[in-house]
Amino acid sequence: GRPACECNTCYGGPDCSLFLPSCSANADGGDPLFLEPFWKQHAESSAVVVAGWHRMSYSFSDQTTLSKELESLLRKLHSLVGNAITDGKYILFGAGSTQLLNAAAHALSPHNSSLPATAVASIPYYALYQKQIEFFDPADCSFQGDPARWNNTTNTTGDIIEFVTAPNNPDGQLNEAVLHGPNVKTIHDRAYYWPHFTGIPSPADEDLTIFTISKLTGHAGSRFGWALIRNEEVYQRMDRYLELNTMGVSRDTQLRALKLLKVIIGDGGREIFEFGYKTMTKRWARLRKTLSMSNRFSLQKVPPENCTYFQKVREPTPAYAWVKCEREEDKDCFEILNVAKILGRAGSIFHDDSRYVRLSLIRSDDDFDVLISRLKSLISGEDGAK
Ligand code: PMP
Questions:
Q1: Arithmetic mean of pLDDT, 90-115
Q2: Peptide bond into 124 cis (omega under 30)
Q3: What is the C-alpha radius of gyration for the chain, rounded to an integer number of angstroms?
Q4: CA–CA distance from 156 to each of 162, 335, 341 (Å)?
Q5: HSE on the CB side for 288, CA within 13 Å?
Q6: pTM of full prediction above 0.90
Q7: What's the CA-to-centroid distance between 120 and ligand 1, angstroms?
Q8: 98 CA to middle of ligand 1, Å?
Q9: Is the confidence metric ipTM above 0.95 for this complex?
Q10: Is 126 touching ligand 1 by the criterion CB < 6 Å?
């Protein structure tokens, strides 16, 4: 057996099979370890070995053959999956989509204007958009919350930047832009627009779309994302930001991304997307079954989508459950779950009601098993449980 110190945090004993009653289910962060078993099956073909003297130079993103090869693999991947049109678009790499989101907000903000741009995102939204803008505090952009407020207002003079997340984090909806017009610019965050999580009804063909390997291959720690950009000037402004900020993306990271993409593209993506879709489908089935016994908690409803990749209409299998506490007295849903040793992320973090809580479904198998077991105990103790 493994020594106890190597067991998952929720297990102990000589062979790690003893469930520790004191442990909490971690369903908080979006660490995408659900894909780890896939990479264990491809350990050899996905390995990267770099000799000490290799690739020592600075990387200027569009000059190296490595970057060119990576760019052409990304274009091939999008055309295989059918989730984005890359013809007529520039591609820029970033340290995760996190860096590109900031570069994009910078590039779309007015320069030399006395009127700063207003950034908005529909509630519930991923907290990072607002945090970045407020932390870096640019003179030419401020975050103002929900776009619904701007629909019929008189603010028609300044530029508006809308973040559109599709599928959305936290609720999995395939959001569309709310605002349109000559002074509206849109940043499409498509971190989750892969067959693991959603049907792919049609390829994205937007002015500025951001992707990441974090939720595609699961390699969140490698920090690699890319942006598809239609307009040359926007591309150049983003490129300038990246040059001044980090002087391009680590070549070690690019090399790793290249290797991983080669593995998944080898069979047209079949294996990884089938693995991802199956894993997420099984997890959703277990979660739905567990919550179907409860009158107290409900799950978001996301409509089925046609998936051009799997060539069928399918139920979405979002990365997160967006749970609502239905009882009048359960106003703080995060706390209700927390007391039952389930760590989620409070609805208020996504600027929504605290009756909601987000549970991550993309963590490791162990994390998910513990989550289901904690939910079962909570629900079985419920008055009037079905
Ligand atoms: N956008 C969304 C909607 C996300 O959920 C995340 C990660 N949780 C990111 C962007 C950032 O991802 P990364 O920087 O790892 O690419």
A1: 94
A2: yes
A3: 22
A4: 14, 41, 48
A5: 12
A6: yes
A7: 17
A8: 6
A9: yes
A10: yes
Question: By alpha-carbon position, which residue is closest to atom 7 of ligand 1?
Answer: 30
Encoded tokens for 139? 């003179």
The answer to whether the CB of 169 is under 6 A from ligand 1 is yes
319 lines ligand 1 (CB under 6 A): no
Residue type, 9: T
Query: Ligand 1 within 6 A of 165 CB?
Result: yes
**Domain 65-266 CATH assignment equals 3.40.640.10:** yes
How does DSSP assign 355-372, residue by residue? TEEEEE-SS-HHHHHHHH
pLDDT tens profile 139-161: 889 999 888 877 655 455 789 99
- Reported as a single tens digit per residue, the pLDDT across 123-136 is 999 999 999 999 99
Q: In the chain, where does the domain assigned CATH 3.40.640.10 lie? A: 65-266
Please give the Cα distance from 89 to 230 (Å, whole number). 5
Query: Hey, which of 92, 93, 97, 349 would you mutate to test ligand 1's pocket, going by the most ligand atoms within 8 Å of its Cβ?
Result: 97
Count CB neighbours of 158 within 10 A.
15
- What spacing in Å lies between the alpha carbon of 321 and ligand 1's midpoint? 16
List 11's β-bridge partners, or say none: 19
Cβ(98) to ligand 1 under 6 A? yes
Closest-CA residue, ligand 1 atom 8, reads 30
- Among left, alpha and beta (phi > 0; psi -120 to 50; other), residue 60 is beta
Q: At what angle do helices 96-108 and 232-246 cross, to 10 degrees?
A: 130
Nearest Cα to 379, choosing from 320, 345, 336?
336
CB 216 within 8 A of CB 182: no
Q: Which fold has domain 28-40+270-380?
A: Aspartate Aminotransferase, domain 1 (3.90.1150)
